[in-house]
Amino acid sequence: xxxxxxxxxxxxxxxxxxxxxxxxxxxxxxxxxxxxxxxxxxxxxxxxxxxxxxxxxxxxxxxxxxxxxxxxxxxxxxxxxxxxxxxxxxxxxxxxxxxxxxxxxxxxxxxxxxxxxxxxxxxxxxxxxxxxxxxxxxxxxxxxxxxxxxxxxxxxxxxxxxxxxxxxxxxxxxxxxxxxxxxxxxxxxxxxxxxxxxxxxxxxxxxxxxxxxxxxxxxxxxxxxxxxxxxxxxxxxxxxxxxxxxxxxxxxxxxxxxxxxxxxxxxxxxxxxxxxxxxxxxxxxxxxxxxxxxxxxxxxxxxxxxxxxxxxxxxxxxxxxxxxxxxxxxxxxxxxxxxxxxxxxxxxxxxxxxxxxxxxxxxxxxxxxxxxxxxxxxxxxxxxxxxxxxxxxxxxxxxxxxxxxxxxxxxxxxxxxxxxxxxxxxxxxxxxxxxxxxxxxxxxxxxxxxxxxxxxxxxxxxxxxxxxxxxxxxxxxxxxxxxxxxxxxxxxxxxxxxxxxxxxxxxxxxxxxxxxxxxxxxxxxxxxxxxxxxxxxxxxxxxxxxxxxxxxxxxxxxxxxxxxxxxxxxxxxxxxxxxxxxxxxxxxxxxxxxxxxxxxxxxxxxxxxxxxxxxxxxxxxxxxxxxxxxxxxxxxxxxxxxxxxxxxxxxxxxxxxxxxxxxxxxxxxxxxxxxxxxxxxxxxxxxxxxxxxxxxxxxxxxxxxxxxxxxxxxxxxxxxxxxxx
Length: 725
Ligand code: ADP
Ligand code: MG
Fold this sequence. Notes:
By secondary structure, the chain is an alpha+beta fold. The chain folds into 3 domains: 31-177, Glutamine synthetase, N-terminal domain (Ubiquitin-like (UB roll), Roll); 186-578, Glutamine synthetase/guanido kinase, catalytic domain (Creatine Kinase, Chain A, domain 2); 593-723, Four Helix Bundle (Hemerythrin (Met), subunit A) (Up-down Bundle). The protein contains 27 helices and 20 strands. A hairpin with a 4-residue loop joins β19 (462-464) and β20. The chain starts with a helix and ends with a helix. Adenosine-5'-diphosphate binds at residues 210-212, 214, 281, 294-297, 343, 345, 353, 467-468. Residues 214, 341 line the site of magnesium ion.
């Protein structure tokens, strides 16, 4: 009988259709056709309603009930023209995915059917949200959570449904999602950054964050995927021996894109363009069957929403190509995992990128003010920032000698680093004016040698790349909002301090430029320890970082404790981004999610070993036994020499089978013991040590068996089959 694997391999070889859906004409012809942007909205509502939307988008003004009905009716008219039948509030619960509950436009009254979409339905929806994670913020008997339209992100059409980007909050107003705190952090950052800008330019009234999100992913044939219970249920392989060849020849990165993959890419790009996602680059990544795409950067909320949409679109389009997209951070052992590099910059409403070195002394002072504030923020909250990317899935990647290391550092590039060195070596902060002038001169020299974008450090989790920071540690499956809102917040806190420190010095008689320069120097000198220009993956850096007092993530649930630290709570609460009970809720949810995911993985590895691996091992043993018996019949005593290798294999298989059985039993026991622990944070820690280490032992035996057993009998697609098209 053919194994499941054999059938899957046969199917997979017939899946390369190379077909893709093509739109007529250039991309510009259909770009954004499924998005109702401000321009289009104008045609579907009165000037008054349109202006209300505009004010809401631009200044966050509250929408008046008197116009919301009209706005909703306009949206519905557009959506119906485009073939839609339903609408949904699309929100980002604390699960790293999106949630949607579709409602039909069609209504019935007195035997009549008609379409209606009211203003109140647009502004607010009450999904039965009792089963989203809430961390104790809302009891399930009070299953009320509200989703509310976020006008800063445009509505769009997907699969015949009008999608309304929304926040998700509890009955009493606490954030139950990643979007609400992100919006608050953007506000806090805008306030703080504008104040600092106005030290240089009175005309700045707001500041926004730009994000360019690079998305890495793996592709696996659908039939092969379906015959791996671990990929289906955990998103990663929990067993599987490495392939003889994987990424060691470095021949995949930037290599020619396989034709099956390129038709998939063209197809999902077309869909993404229609949703207004400005995809710009695509290429092969380091690991086999690993790829990346990146859009042009845009304003943070939109960039995040679009990234979440992109992930959905990619998964849907993959079905047409009999492919599965894997966003897990570490689906395969032994090859690189995937991340989501977050290119982050801040820009004024007057169009100045505050992380771009300027061409005049004043502009450079402003650049340095922002740079020093970011560095100080990253230094002070380095452990918190690293914790924002800590999850079970990313933990298989963190610190594994590939992006990213487990400890935070900031890379500036040799030119800029040289400038900082000279600023820091210039003597006491309150030295005479001459020093400040001198430093301005140094600063002024940056543009001539800058920007040098070739000065890249790919081993740094937080690298300056000429006009932005690249937060490289974010996980590929993560909603980046959960990391970005923390970054926005810590920088806002730092900028507030920067501003106050400058004013204090001015009040004591310093000139503005001298005061600014003094605070820049103070911030840089306080944050010296976070700056690192060398190899972030090296053992030496691990030691060096420790001696500098930088805390590395060694264990994910332990890292979550940072949410209880005073500096964290004070920062979030002070900026009005997260209240203490919201922080506590997150802490609980993170721990709970960690436990649940690990529990699933532990069950899956147990099932796979007992139901797939051991039966195959026993079957192969029987063949060996038959062979040895036959040999004995023919050769008698001599057979024990002739069959030495078979006998040895037989013994090894028995040893691993016994080991697996015992370890799987121990794994079940470890889980049971952990499950009895009431406190979720403690339970997560026990899981992270006891359950995880037992899983590693089980895996080791299973992977050894894979090498011993007849290939024809092995029931699960192997790495070499999963990883190469
Ligand atoms: P690389 O892999 O070399 O980092 P990519 O082209 O893959 O480059 O991705 C770079 C990302 O950074 C793109 O999304 C790009 O739009 C974005 N980006 C460029 N400039 C900025 C900026 N000032 N602020 C935020 N993102 C930016
Ligand atoms: Mg890149």
